[in-house]
Amino acid sequence: MQDARGAVVSVSRDDRHRFSKPVVPDIRLISGVGVEGDAHAGATTAHRYLVRKDPGRANLTQVHLLPAELFDDLAETGFTLAPGELGENVTTRGLDLLGLPLGTRLHLGADAVVQVTGMRNPCSLINGLQRGLMKTLIETDDAGRVTRRAGIMGIVVSGGTVTPGDPIRVELPAGDHLPLGVV
């Protein structure tokens, strides 16, 4: 997967804590902070639920990435979603984001690099967007394993501007590849 490539479909940000984020022409990623002008940016966690648990916790959720293929899958079950509606900053196409190992670096466009920290754990606010949507994003298989499909989270290790159409290059971590946990 070292040579895997995808593309940025859409970018979103919001300076307030709302569930969905408006689509914008570009976003600027800032190293160690996240998306400039986004409510979830910062060196320490800015997610409201996580701030209540541990306000000094390192922000492992600076950037939320979601595959556009999820929208295609959900459309087959009657859900209609567009980029930004699930709160993601970067909507991608052509990459198996959930299959990436912990520590993978995603090179977005010319300069930006996001290091994958884990899977997004979708919250019940998703059902406010469309009733029953949460159940489709967290499923339990026949073996009792929980699968989450709400995208991945990462931290910015190299800043830069990201726009729709930018290529994404995958850089796998050295050594053993660890599966993604929930952040």
TrEMBL record:
It holds the Pfam family MOSC. PANTHER family: METAL-SULFUR CLUSTER BIOSYNTHESIS PROTEINS YUAD-RELATED (PTHR36930), MOSC DOMAIN-CONTAINING PROTEIN (PTHR36930:SF1). It comes from Cryobacterium shii. Gene3D superfamilies: PK beta-barrel domain-like. GO terms for molecular function: catalytic activity; molybdenum ion binding; pyridoxal phosphate binding. Residues 22-171 form the MOSC domain. It comes from the Bacteria. The lineage of its organism: Bacteria, Bacillati, Actinomycetota, Actinomycetes, Micrococcales. This is MOSC domain-containing protein.
